[in-house]
Specification:
The complex is a heterodimer of chains A (254) and B (470). Chain A is of the alpha/beta class and 254 residues long. Chain A has a single domain, classed as Rossmann fold. Chain A is 35% helix and 26% strand. Chain A contains nine helices and ten strands. In chain A, the strands form two sheets. A six-stranded mixed beta sheet of chain A has the order 6-7-8-3-9-10, with helices on both faces. In chain A, strands 2-1-4-5 form a four-stranded antiparallel beta sheet, with helices on one face. In chain A, strand 9 and strand 10 form a beta hairpin. Chain A is globular and about 55 Å long. Chain A starts with a strand and ends with a helix. In chain A, 39% of the residues are buried. Chain B is α/β, with parallel strands linked by helices and 470 residues long. In chain B, strands 5, 6, 8, 9, 11, 12, 14, 16, 17, 19, 21 and 23 form a twelve-stranded mixed beta sheet that branches. A ten-stranded mixed beta sheet of chain B has the order 4-3-7-10-13-15-18-20-22-24. Chain B is built from eleven helices and 24 strands. Chain B has a domain of 54 residues. In chain B, helix 2 runs antiparallel to helix 8. The chains are: A alpha/beta (254), B alpha/beta (470). The interface between A and B is medium-sized, with 29 and 25 residues. The structure holds adenosine-5'-diphosphate and magnesium ion (MG).
């Protein structure tokens, strides 16, 4: 079992503090959900774990199996096994999905070793079938002109191909209709297993009906204010976030 | 003149190495009438060429540097310090690699030329400084009547065809550098394809500059007779020197009625080379001239391949990719001169500027009023990699008359930091991410290259991008 551990993490952008002492322990074999209102810092958390250069970690640590990854470049973190399904995936004009994933897999091989093309395509088609994506999808440029739903599906396809140790899914449900949501959830669920830990970030509890989490954390204002089992998500759905709002945040707001 | 010991400089650039060679003929530095006499004597040229060269020298000296519109960096070319002719001997280029002198052969072997020839080419000419060291055409192609030889030999052996077209598409006084080339030219290819013959594999020339302070002035003339088809490819490299090297070629293409010529360039000059080249094709009725031009490297490149569409329904096309690395200036573009009804031209230009690199697009499209049914399409897209990178576009489109159409699109884009982060998040290094983005940007054009060249191009882009980050 491996652990992704967030330890009392403080993160700023410019002189504004966004994460304010956040701790979380995600072991492989489990799915944790993070829920919270817009602007509470969920995407920031995901991007900081992935090593986005805009954010500054002012204190605390992120540990991959006991080792700090803060000094690692984003690509080194990715190759170590961290995957982020972006809330807003970037477009890469002219680069086909097939070539992009091939380059990403090639980057994981030792120097001098070449990716085996036949095996690669077999695996790619298998994962596309799982996500009910048409074959011609591979020759489209990454995210270029994709609908919201296609982008999210493409993120999960990449995750399925790269087989990360820790996957961070940021609002993967947004922009999906119910059919697409079912397909994507099916794809995600098929990747669950003892070797993989998942952090599912969502605004709505709807997704958690399909990807059932082992634990749910409520994030408000850059901190986790409540943790519990999946029933917590139902409570949030029924009662909203007000009950969980921090007293001090309220004081600031008042 | 040469060290007995082999001297070898390698770095990551493929062409950046140099073996010492012995030059039997050296015209010294500077260009004057005596230099021209020296070149003519060594090459054993007829009097009309001697006179042609001397007239050209006058024009070269008269013409001002075009710095009123072009880069002032041109002023840094010290013409008196350049060596205008260097060769190992006046003898004819060899027909087998075994006969090529060892010190020259190993350079081409290292560049992979004999291997490419075996694999996919119909003929190869390999020029080393001023003269071709090797020139050969596959027997089957030669049997079809195709002539492929150095232009030095062609003007002596095939004067009847050579003289008819030589200097007709690009007159000596076209510009200062075409005049310079006309005065000092040596090497380059001559191709004649007889009526109806379609050469199935490309013919290739490779231009190698080996000497320091050298000027390479090859002269290429390709004639496709009625209904003939031919593809010609050129590659070029030079080792990196601290001093300026000059490459100033003139390339003339003649596509007679219904003929097709495709001319592909993948240049990879080191960044001390001034690359000032004049390229133009003449397309007669129903003929097609297509330039695929890929410019990587050099200090300053000025090159605007053109097509004069002289016959009805003639077509002209320029597809160009320019990559301006740190400190480099790629000043490229296209000229389309419509001179008959229903002629069509297409220009697609993509440039990438890295670091302090600068890419300039200059276009000229001319459709006069009296013509009918002419069309031009121009597309130029620029990609900027760093905030210090620069691009400029100067399209000059003159379309007169009511029955003619023209479409023009231009864009400037940047590789965003979010895009790079996204790719890094998938495990690619920053340099790999950059390369992939740049390759994506030019992807639709690269697809038009023959396979072997698109692989080469991708590799060149990777190398350039490796140096551009971190
Ligand atoms: N790059 C950025 N520049 C400035 N502010 C940012 C940036 N990223 C996030 N923020 C701010 O940080 C807060 C948390 O944003 P985010 O992490 O996207 O929240 P969530 O994903 O929970 O909606 C918001 O107030 C947002 O405006
Ligand atoms: Mg978010």
């Amino acid at each position: 079992m491996k652990h992704l551990k967030i330890d009392n993490l403080h993160v700023s952008i410019g002189d504004r503090e966004i994460l304010r002492g956040l701790s979380l322990d995600l072991p492989t074999g489990q799915v944790h959900a993070i829920m919270g209102p817009n602007g509470s810092g969920k995407s920031t958390l995901a991007k900081v774990i992935a090593g986005h250069p805009d954010y500054t970690v002012t204190s605390g640590d992120i540990l991959f199996d006991g080792e700090s990854i803060l000094v690692m470049e984003p690509d080194a973190r990715a190759r170590q096994g961290i995957f982020l399904a972006f809330q807003y995936p970037s477009e890469i004009p002219g680069v086909t999905i097939a070539n992009f994933l091939r380059a990403a897999l090639q980057a994981r091989l030792p120097e001098g070793e070449e990716l085996e093309a036949t095996e690669y395509y077999a695996k790619l088609y298998e994962k596309m079938d799982l996500l009910e994506m048409p074959r011609n999808f591979t020759s489209r440029a990454v995210n270029e002109g994709f609908s919201g739903g296609e982008k999210k599906r493409c993120e999960i396809l990449q995750m399925a191909m790269l087989q990360p140790t820790f996957a961070l899914l940021d609002e993967t449900d947004s922009g999906l209709d119910i059919d697409a949501l079912k397909i994507v959830s099916h794809g995600v669920n098929s990747l669950r297993g003892p070797e993989t830990g998942m952090l599912v970030i969502t605004h709505y509890q709807r997704l958690l009906n399909y990807i059932v989490p082992d634990f749910v954390h409520v994030m408000i204002n850059g901190r986790i204010v409540e943790s519990g089992t999946k029933e917590l998500a139902l409570k949030l759905e029924a009662e909203g976030y007000d009950w969980a709002t921090e007293p001090e945040a309220e004081a600031v707001g008042a | 003149m040469s060290n007995t010991q082999t001297q070898l400089d390698i770095d990551r650039e493929k062409g950046n190495f140099r073996y010492d060679v012995d030059y039997e003929f050296d015209a010294g530095t500077g260009l004057n009438e005596k230099t021209i006499d020296y070149i003519c004597d060594v090459k054993g040229e007829p009097d009309w060429i001697r006179q042609f060269r001397k007239d050209a020298l006058k024009k070269f000296l008269e013409k001002p540097m075009p710095t009123h519109w072009a880069s002032h960096d041109l002023e840094n070319i010290i013409f008196d310090k350049i060596r205008y002719y260097l060769s190992q001997g006046g003898q004819k280029p060899k027909k087998t690699w075994d006969e090529v002198p060892e010190d020259v052969k190993r350079t081409f072997e290292r560049l992979g030329i004999p291997e490419q020839e075996r694999k996919f080419l119909a003929g190869v000419e390999a020029q080393f400084d001023s003269e071709a060291a090797y020139s050969n055409i596959k027997e089957a192609v030669g049997k079809q009547g195709v002539i492929f030889m150095g232009s030095t030999d062609a003007l002596k052996e095939r004067p009847e065809i050579f003289r008819k077209w030589f200097g007709k598409v690009i007159p000596t006084g076209d510009n200062k550098f075409s005049a310079l080339n006309s005065a000092a030219f040596s090497g380059g290819s001559f191709i004649y394809v007889p009526p109806g013959v379609k050469v199935s594999h490309p013919l290739q020339a490779y231009f190698r500059i080996n000497a320091e302070n050298f000027g390479q002035f090859e002269r290429t003339l390709i004639i496709a007779d009625e209904g003939a088809e031919v593809t010609y490819m050129e590659g070029c490299t030079a080792p990196k020197f601290d001093t300026a090297t000059l490459h100033s070629a003139v390339v003339e293409l003649v596509a007679l009625k219904g003929a097709k010529i495709q001319y592909i360039t993948v240049q990879n000059w080191s960044n001390n080379v001034f690359n000032l080249v004049t390229k133009r094709g003449l397309a007669m009725e129903d003929a097609e001239v297509k330039w695929i031009d890929c410019n990587i490297g050099s200090r300053l490149t000025m090159k605007y391949p053109g097509v004069v569409m002289k016959g009805r329904r003639a077509r002209g096309e320029v597809i160009s990719i320019a990559l301006a690395g740190d400190g480099q200036h790629q000043d490229t573009g296209a000229k389309m001169v419509h001179a008959a009804d229903e002629t069509t031209s297409n220009i697609v230009s993509k440039s990438i500027s890295v670091g302090t690199g600068r890419a300039t697009y200059r276009g000229l499209v001319n459709i006069p009023r009296h013509l009918k049914g002419c069309k031009n399409n121009t597309e130029c897209d620029a990609l900027l990699i760093n905030t210090s990178s620069r691009t400029d576009t100067y399209p000059a489109i003159t379309v007169r008359g009511t029955g003619n159409a023209c479409q023009h699109e231009a864009s400037v884009s940047q590789v965003s930091s979010e895009q790079i982060f996204y790719m890094q998040q998938r495990g690619l290094t920053e340099a790999q991410a950059m390369s992939l983005s740049v390759n994506g940007f030019v992807n639709d054009l690269v697809r038009q290259f023959p396979m072997e060249y698109s692989v080469e191009l991708k590799r060149l882009i990777d190398l350039e991008m490796e140096g551009s980050v971190g």
